[in-house]
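hey so i finally got around to running the thing on that chain from the lab meeting. sorry it took forever, my laptop kept dying and i had to restart like 3 times. anyway pasting the input first so we r on the same page abt which one it is
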Amino acid sequence: MIEFPDSFLFGTATSSYQIEGDNVWSDWWYWAEKGKLPKAGKACNHWELYREDIELMASLDYLAYRFSVEWARIFPEEGKLNDSALERYQDIIDFLNKKGITPMLTIHHFTLPMWFALKGGFEKEENLKYWEEYVSVIAELKGVEFVATFNEPMVYVVAGYLMGMWPPFKKNPLRVGKVAVNIINAHAIAYEILHGKFKVGIVKNYQHFIPASDSKRDKEARDRVDYLFNWAFIDGIFYGSYESFMKKYKVNESDLDFIGINYYNIQKVKKSWNPLNPFIVEDADVSRKTDMGWSVYPKGIYEGIKAFSRYEKPMYITENGIATLDDEWRIEFIVQHLQYVHKAIKEGLDINGYFYWSFMDNYEWAEGFRPRFGLIEIDYETFERKPRRSAYIYGEIAKKKEISDELLEKYGLKEI
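ok and heres what got predicted. didnt touch it at all, straight out
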């Protein structure tokens, strides 16, 4: 039997654009209408069905819920506050608390108000005044203990400004550094406003990188990519200096009350001879592939926790999940990863919670509705919610704060 501390938070995670539906003022909605992205439409219709969803969480014994606020709902136009949207988010928080579910709020989860994007978004330092206005409104929400300023900032920067796969669809390595610097400074602004009212953190995607070969070139390439993607951003927050692909920048030093770690997969890195694209990063191909084309490597979650412990801050696994229609594999995935989270706890590392991604099937960004990450199956035609077996198994783990010997034995696992 694997036992977790009584204070350990077992929860689930979502984001606003992926589940709410009809986020018509968002930059993602704009680009979907232009044909550059799959349309989200009603998504899971959570904006209307949020009480039903929270009731379902409570019935499954989930203890915490990480979700995001849609900036474009709060400020659909420049300087125009949507009070009814803000009240809806407050009601979500209040209802979570009423049901005994700890809310963890994310302020920015990839999407922007279209008016802000048209002004250049986070590319322009002068635009941070609009961010400050938004954060000041969020500061008035009640009943929240944990607030994350940004979700996966390096994914946002790389996908939008280096690879050009996401809005604003640019491929410019120099912009990567500029945008990252402004986001670090935006975090500093938010931390100053929010710290003292909430525990303020950031959610960082951790990629477990390995070299593609034993060659010195590939090992050095792996180390370089590992630093730039996994550590440079948070080093910038703590130490006031950010190193991008192209150069070093001075940024506003700040702080974190906690670090959220998102972990999914393992990738291999190869040195490229192309000076414009010096690294080749691809799936490590070490296991059966998920429906996102990712290899599963459970030990990576432990390696990530251990690596992030260098910052000596409380840590939470804010996302970990699998896209598959094989729900037995989902259960195995959860148990395997929780084994390694428990190993980190046993070794005295300050890891305090685990949020499965996702509570429900949802709009998976540029992948649309094809990948199924959810503990809850969604019928996108009728919006019926149907808990998978994994939803009940995970709820049992959350309720008892333990993984039973029977569950370990079923999947051929043991305490590590």
